[in-house]
Specification:
Elements: H1 7-21, H2 23-33, H3 37-53, H4 64-82, H5 92-122, H6 125-134, H7 141-148, H8 152-178
């Protein structure tokens, strides 16, 4: 990784920003290859530690997510070797196929999550609050309507309008990003 004018501290800050920026994507990728959540978290921590210890090997300006995913892949293989005594385990061929399929899917999901968060931030506060109320555990449209003092029909209509706007906003954001 080329050293910015801020020296080691600036390089560390840049690396931490890159690493934290892909944590969700890396987690999804590893969870695709390691079905058990606790095991996947262990592999993620090992991968993060490896990436941090080898930060100077990352070439600034290259695809950080691809570099980190490749490291995660090798950590999954190492984990699998340690777990070889287990009766139920995926074949190495399947893990390789899942790895090649999972990486682009995880990146796509990351783009969708980013677009969703961007669009949610653009919503008026009243619309965000209505969505938050509706998607609370066990919430119903009727309960939300009673809480906001509107009819169920009005809440249904508002939620439909908000969802449609979110969908269109996300599609625009993803389209702009892929251009």
């Amino acid at each position: 990784m080329s050293e910015p004018s801020g020296g080691r501290s600036g390089r560390d800050d840049q690396f931490v920003e890159l690493l934290t920026g892909i944590q969700q994507q890396l987690t999804r990728y590893i969870r695709t290859l390691v079905p058990n959540r606790a095991d996947a978290e262990e592999v993620l921590q090992e991968t993060n530690l490896f990436l941090w210890r080898h930060a100077e090997e990352y070439q600034s300006g290259t695809n950080f997510a691809a570099w980190a995913s490749k490291a995660a892949y090798y950590h999954v293989l190492t984990f699998r070797k340690r777990q070889a005594r287990d009766r139920l385990r995926f074949s190495d061929v399947l893990i390789d196929q899942l790895s090649r399929t999972a990486a682009p899917l995880c990146e796509s999901v990351s783009q969708e999550v980013e677009a969703f968060e961007l669009c949610m931030a653009k919503l008026p506060l009243e619309d965000r609050e209505l969505l938050e109320l509706r998607y609370q555990p066990d919430a119903t449209v009727q309960a939300v309507a009673a809480k906001v003092g509107k009819s169920s029909k009005a809440v249904y209509h508002a939620l439909s309008r908000i969802r449609m706007w979110l969908l269109e906003c996300m599609q625009r954001a993803i389209s702009r990003r892929s251009d």
